[in-house]
């Protein structure tokens, strides 16, 4: 999936604002690195990227999402969530195991709350049977981020 991710890496790094990245990192309690791309600009850049490159298919999305999630700058995790949100809106079944991984890895309120409302919540509304299968298990796992979702 490098052929998909490398152009996105290039696009975001070319549009970095180092002066913003310092403040963004401080705001997030030094948990993550940033390119310093503010939300409105990032959304516009990723929208153009997705228009040109497309959204990963239902067969490829898991690998792309995991690779983006593993990159250091927070804007990559936001791009991964943009992809997931698009897939969920298209009613493509997103694996609960992937969502669990994302919730518990690089966890912080920004991505967890986004996932809760715009991805997991939509998945549960589309597939109510997932609620009963998932809720009890997530509450038993000693992870505040899963419980928050």
Please tell me about this protein's structure.
The chain has 149 residues and is an all-alpha fold. It has one domain: Leucine-rich Repeat Variant. It contains nine helices and no strands. The chain has helices spanning 2-14, 18-27, 39-53, 61-70, 74-89, 96-104, 109-126, 129-140, 144-148. Helix 1 (2-14) packs antiparallel against helix 3. The longest helix has 18 residues, at 109-126. The chain is globular.
Put the structure in a nutshell.
The chain has a single domain, classed as Alpha Horseshoe (Leucine-rich Repeat Variant), CATH 1.25.10. The chain is built from nine helices and no strands.
SSE layout:
Elements (H helix, E strand, L loop, with lengths): L1 H13 L3 H10 L11 H15 L7 H10 L3 H16 L6 H9 L4 H18 L2 H12 L3 H5 L1
Just name the CATH architecture. Alpha Horseshoe
The total count of helices amounts to 9
CATH fold topology: Leucine-rich Repeat Variant
Q: What's the end-to-end separation, in Å?
A: 29 Å
Which structural class best describes the helix and strand composition? mainly alpha
The overall average pLDDT, rounded, is: 96
> What string, H for helix and E for strand, traces the elements in order?
HHHHHHHHH
Cα-based radius of gyration, to the nearest Å: 15 Å
How many strand segments?
A: 0
The portion of residues forming beta strands comes to: under 5%
| Biggest beta-sheet profile | none
CATH class: Mainly Alpha
What is the helix content? over 70%
Count of the domains: 1
Q: Show unreliable segments.
A: none
State the shape.
globular
């Amino acid at each position: 999936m490098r052929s998909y991710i490398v152009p996105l890496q290039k696009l975001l790094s070319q549009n970095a604002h180092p002066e913003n990245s310092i403040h963004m990192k401080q705001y997030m309690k030094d948990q993550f690195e940033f390119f310093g791309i503010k939300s409105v600009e990032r959304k516009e850049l990723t929208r153009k990227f997705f228009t040109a490159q497309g959204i990963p298919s239902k067969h490829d999305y898991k690998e792309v999402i995991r690779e983006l999630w593993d990159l250091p700058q927070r804007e990559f995790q936001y791009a991964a969530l943009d992809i997931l949100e698009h897939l969920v809106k298209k009613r493509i079944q997103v694996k609960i195991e992937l969502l669990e991984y994302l919730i518990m890895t690089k966890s912080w309120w920004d991505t967890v709350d986004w996932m809760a409302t715009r991805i997991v919540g939509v998945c549960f509304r589309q597939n109510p049977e997932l609620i009963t299968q998932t809720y009890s298990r997530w509450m038993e796992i000693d992870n505040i981020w899963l419980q928050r979702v």
